[in-house]
Amino acid sequence: MLPLTGLVAFDAPRLALSILALDSRLRGIALSGSIGNGKSTLLTGFSALVPDLAILDLPVSSDQEALLGGLDIEATIQTGRRVFRDGLLARAHGGVLRAESCHLLPEHIVNILMSALDESRVRIERDGMSRQIDTHFRLLTSFDPQEGMPRAHLLDRIGLIVSLPKLSSELERKEVLRRHFHPSDDEWTEELELMQSLIDSAREILPDVSMSQKMARKIIDTALALGVEGHRADRFAQLAACASAALALRTEVTDEDMEIAVRLVLLPRATRVPASGTPPEHPENSTSPPPAESSVESNAGVSQTEQPPEPIDEVLEAIETDLPFALESLPFARQRTGRSGSRGAVEGTRGRHIGSVPGSLRRRRLDVVATLRAASCWQRVRPRGKSRVSVKSEDFRVKRFRSKAGSLFIFAVDASGSMALNRMRQAKGAVHALLSQAYIHRDKVSLVTFRGESAEVALPPTNSVELLRRAVDQIPTGGGTPIAATLLRTLEIADAAHRKGFKNICLVLLTDGRANIGLRGNRQTVEQELKLLSRSLADQKIQSLVIDTQRSFLSHGPGENLAGWLGGRYLYLPNASADQLARAAVGAA
To answer: 3-class DSSP state for residue 526?
Structure first.
């Protein structure tokens, strides 16, 4: 594996890791990038910058006991008294905790991490024991925005957020191959030693680095212009700017350090593109008293010299080329659902082990470790037979499992001639927006198209969103509107999905609602067929969303009636954006 200095086009991540190695008060770094983009290599390479620190890994499958610690069963049985075993947080104190794919971490694990980052200590009350552990560590995380987003509250507690660039040029990709197959170890080793030496020198300078009031005001104004929420980011930006100055062997923060702090701290948290011009002015005749001398300490990074505020245009101009990409690829500007991949999670006898509870062994699996833990506390008072450990039925602990059954979205797209006259293009765009939501939640998708006299399954249930996108783009139009045949086909797909364990099934029907082809070719019975089939779908607990594509002066007729028969939601396409449609579909499921 190449060292940090051998990675192509990763100057910003290298600088961010150097800043984190220099100042632990930044608490951590989050790397955002697509699969295979070098996130793991960067996080692994951080160990070379802090060779004296222990680096522990937090797997996605870790449970609460692994993180916090718990009863040491073997020692407890041997000694007859409770013995506590430290978890990852206690062992990572003063070191580094690495949590890759943090968007996949369970919510209760994220809550513990946030508490540890906030307080630098955690109080543990479990297994009849109470103790407090110190938890000051650097957190290294990574995530793929296409797979899902981490909790915004977790990222808010991490100082540095870096979006890795995509190597799109031919020269860069060739250089990557050259360095992997023909590495120049001496060159990269020498550069790495220089980085380590620079960090050591900067660590001695850092306590003497100061930031003027003018620079501090720029941080505040830039954060306001970018719509950065909360106050943690202001402090992180100040620390990053001071660390940048120390790495440049300076004792005063300059505009160059400010630009680095904005790129690594404020810009990834931006929620809007700032308007051109100066930031909001500060009142000249303010009645607020001046800050006390003790409120700003030079060794924390801010000098006492008060200077008039300056426009931040030059700061924003220096980073404006990064704004569109950052706002598109990073989480704070997005409206997210909160937990990635949690919809459709059900408890059962299979899946991921999420804990253990007292219970009967009937149709449940025994958790041997938890059972021994419960029994270990009573060994001194229980009579022993031939076995070394006395276990009674009240000690039994059974495993709890959670599996992600997921949801199945059945997209039924009207491809009749009347659709060609309406908004087929926007209907396809709405499907694309819905697919993005389905991918994030690990749902399956299926496509049914209907025109002429029949409905066809263009794509059976699949995890491949890309296949469905292609199928949607290739839908031809023309012919009648056989909605009844579509509902019948949906029932067949749903029945097969139920047998495979799907709990949530949602029909997303894009049509103008003007059904004119019945199952038997009789137009007189079309409405009766639709009512019967709709009732069958509702009886099977299939959620429905009818997206009406009819033109405005004809809308709110057949489509709205169909939604009522299905017992589902109704949306009028010309008045709804693609994002509104996506939220409606996710809410329906």
So the answer is: helix
d(CA 403, CA 352): 6
Question: Distance between CA atoms of 483 and 198, rounded to whole angstroms?
Answer: 70
Residues 29-53: tens digit of each pLDDT = 999 988 888 889 899 999 999 999 9
* Amino acid present at 561: N
How far apart CA 379 and CA 24 sit, in angstroms, is: 44
Give me the pLDDT at residue 316, please.
Answer: 52
Q: pLDDT tens for residues 49-97? A: 999 999 999 999 888 888 998 888 778 777 777 788 899 999 999 999 9
Question: In whole angstroms, what is the distance from residue 382 CA to residue 142 CA?
Answer: 49
pLDDT tens-digit map of 243-297: 999 999 999 999 999 999 999 999 999 887 665 544 444 444 433 344 443 333 4
DSSP strands (E only) in 104-167: 121-126, 129-134, 138-143, 160-163
Containing H/E element for 400? Answer: strand 397-404
Tell me the percentage of the chain whose pLDDT exceeds 70.
74
Which range (181-195, 225-239, 312-326, 396-410) has the least confidence? Answer: 312-326
370-391 per-position pLDDT tens digit: 888 788 777 777 776 666 777 8
Domains and CATH numbers, the chain: 23-168 (3.40.50.300), 345-381+389-404 (no CATH), 407-588 (3.40.50.410)
Question: Counting beta carbons within 10 angstroms of the beta carbon of residue 81, is it exposed (0 to 12), middle (13 to 18) or buried (19 or more)?
Answer: exposed
Q: How far is CA 393 from CA 325, 353, 360, in A?
A: 59, 22, 8
CA pair distance 33, 552, nearest whole angstrom: 43
Give the DSSP H/E element, type plus range, for residue 56. Answer: strand 55-57
Rounded CA-CA distance 488/485 in Å is 5
| Residue entry with tokens 């924390």 | 300
Rg (CA), the chain: 30
How many CB atoms neighbour CB 167 within 10 A? 17
Helix residue ranges per DSSP H, 185-336: 185-205, 213-225, 232-247, 255-261, 313-319, 323-329
For the packed helices 185-205 and 232-247, what is the interaxial angle rounded to 10 degrees? 110
Closest among 146, 589, 569 to 344, alpha carbons compared: 589
